[in-house]
Design goal:
Blueprint: H1 3-22, H2 25-41, H3 52-71, H4 89-107, H5 111-121, H6 127-134, H7 138-156, H8 161-176
Helix pairs in contact: 1-2, 1-3, 2-3, 3-6, 4-7, 5-7, 6-7
């Protein structure tokens, strides 16, 4: 495949990844363009063309990270990344409160946890695909997902006591039966 075909095949994926990280479409497109330009300049360094997507993803994520550091941002901006489903008017207030709590919980996580959780649960990526997009081994992706979910659970447990009360009761019953 020539570079133009690699670009056509992967540009939207890289834009989506950049948007997940930066939360501004124009900026995401600029970072994706920059990533492809850098990839084009160093294409001779890539030995296996099948690894192009993880390679350019890594370049894009690094450019995005550098940009976020320059702006002084430590976390992924999530204001509108979470494309929540609309509910009935009677549920709107409660849903808004729940979304806000979940959003705050996600914002409190380290960047690496936010990234894998967003890719897994909001962009429906498999563990293997997350690994390819972030250039991480699948085992590392799984451990980051596990740790991220644990941190998120801790972060939001006070906002959703009914959700965690039943889990704690189940855990106690399981421990008593041993």
């Amino acid at each position: 495949m020539n570079f133009a075909e690699l670009y056509e095949t992967n540009f939207k994926k890289i834009c989506g990844l950049c948007y997940c990280q930066l939360h501004e479409w124009e900026l995401a497109r600029d970072v994706a363009q920059d990533a492809f330009l850098r990839a084009f300049e160093k294409i001779e360094d890539l030995r296996d063309q099948e690894k192009f997507l993880p390679w350019v993803s890594t370049i894009a994520v690094n450019i995005g990270r550098n940009l976020m550091r320059q702006r002084g941002s430590k976390n992924l901006p999530l204001e509108e990344v979470l494309d929540w489903q609309e509910y009935t008017i009677s549920d709107a207030a409660e849903r808004h409160e729940n979304r806000s709590a979940l959003r705050q919980g996600l914002l409190s996580l380290p960047m690496e946890s936010q990234q894998v959780l967003l890719l897994k649960y909001f962009y429906c990526c498999s563990d293997e695909e997350i690994g390819r997009r972030t250039d991480l081994p699948t085992g590392t992706v799984k451990s980051r997902l596990h740790r991220g979910k644990k941190l998120l659970r801790e972060s939001i447990k006070d906002d959703f006591p009914e959700m965690f009360r039943s889990n704690n009761n189940e855990d106690r019953e399981e421990n008593q039966s041993r």
